[in-house]
Amino acid sequence: MKTQLDCLPCFLNMALNGIRKACPGQDDVHEKVIREWAKGFAEADLSESPPSIAGRFFRMTAVHIGDVDIFKDQKDEANKRVIELLPKISDTVHNSEDPLLAAMGVSIIGNYMDCALMDKFDWEVELEDLEQDIDRKLFADFMERVRAAKSLLILGDNAGEIGLDTIFAKLLRAEGINVTYAVRGSNILNDATVVDAEFVGMTDICEVVTSGVDTPGTVLNRCSVDFRERLKSAPVVLSKGQGNFESLWGVMPDVFYAFKVKCPVVARLTAHPMKTSLFCREN
Amino acid sequence: MKTQLDCLPCFLNMALNGIRKACPGQDDVHEKVIREWAKGFAEADLSESPPSIAGRFFRMTAVHIGDVDIFKDQKDEANKRVIELLPKISDTVHNSEDPLLAAMGVSIIGNYMDCALMDKFDWEVELEDLEQDIDRKLFADFMERVRAAKSLLILGDNAGEIGLDTIFAKLLRAEGINVTYAVRGSNILNDATVVDAEFVGMTDICEVVTSGVDTPGTVLNRCSVDFRERLKSAPVVLSKGQGNFESLWGVMPDVFYAFKVKCPVVARLTAHPMKTSLFCREN
Predict the structure, then answer these.
(1) Between chains, do A16 and B6 touch, taking CB under 8 Å as contact?
(2) I need a surface site. Which of A50, A231, B108, B153 has the fewest CB within 10 A?
(3) Which of A6, A34, A41 sits opposite B5 (nearest CB)?
(4) What architecture (CATH level 2) is domain B72-281?
């Protein structure tokens, strides 16, 4: 999808949040970075996707702060909390009527919550609501294709969330399906990298690869050549999270998307209200 | 107060909202304006107050859209709705234990709500909460000074709100106090001008003057010479709304402020949480 004007104030808030975390108290650096981003908006190519532009701007910011993993603490905390919660959530999923659908639901909740929110969820109630949201027919089509191909490439999104994705990956593996899980190539926002995949044990369940991107979404021209090949030849692709949706929607056909609608621009584009748990595909 | 980095994304949202209202569907104009604002951020003097910067940027925008009163419909609707509600609200104020304090409470609620919100308020409950918020000792000091001077200059803020301010103005007039009510000199956002003062009948209650400003707050160097004189010589000044607070706090001593805390920057500065009904003075 293209970047909308509404994305610009949102980018600026993201930059401010990030730079304050990266170098607390250094007001002069914060100001310099925010002015740089604002100046960048004046010339930005809005036909690029939001993750593509955001990634470019974060690279520009790295000049001031170096290659810092700004959200490391937040990611570690999210991963840790998910691991604590996993046994109970996993039980709920396995005891539900349709464990695969429930696992997909959990996976989508994972996209929605940061670690601060996690404790406040009543998972069983939440799951019931979620499963109602999800297009069951499309999910059945998806599973049919995955089973026929015996293969699935999952494009991961955030830390924390990746821990919840292990439940779905394990269920598929138990069916003999060959799962590959892709993470970002560099630290960007709170997105999952190989470090997070190892931490939550995804690397023990399936093959974990990096897309090579340094953007908060799978921006094709930032992917490694290897990964682009892999993406092209994957019989079924599941894209997790709004960042991957923003990067691939309108760009790569035939991808299945699973995410929470988190902003008004995506709500307009998908014609689904904010907070919807969306499982969809481009027609 | 100075403009904070947090104000910039907020400005951008304000510009986007305004320009879309001013010329709906003209995406090329929207984009041009937003890019211009963003570029302006790169060079803005952040020691200026937020209303000063916002005013400057809206003047820049007028090149594209002319001297349009962007929020006219919204202001008319707010004024109309307030006039419909006034008899009931006025009764509540007059029947309360301390009508002047209640009128001040109503006046502050007026700063908070747009017309869409107005119908949802239970005014009596709301007033009870509000009066608890307001610093009664400071309000008593304020009234003592007003009564001693037999004079008050009120700096008005939004349309709609100005209708609710008539209750307070009437109560003061009934005590023989000479009230002057100042409105903006030009159309800016949903701020009250002479047109709104006439519409809600403020001109029948007290002298209405314009500050001359074309900014969403009483920015001193945008005031007319006459008004600056008036402001300087006024024995007591009551500043309504967050925009006037942003313009005058740290700039003009001895002003009484009455407004709802509406943004995190002002919440930090005043050390009062968002949504507080604040009646305060700079010490």
Answers:
(1) yes
(2) A231
(3) A34
(4) 3-Layer(aba) Sandwich (3.40)
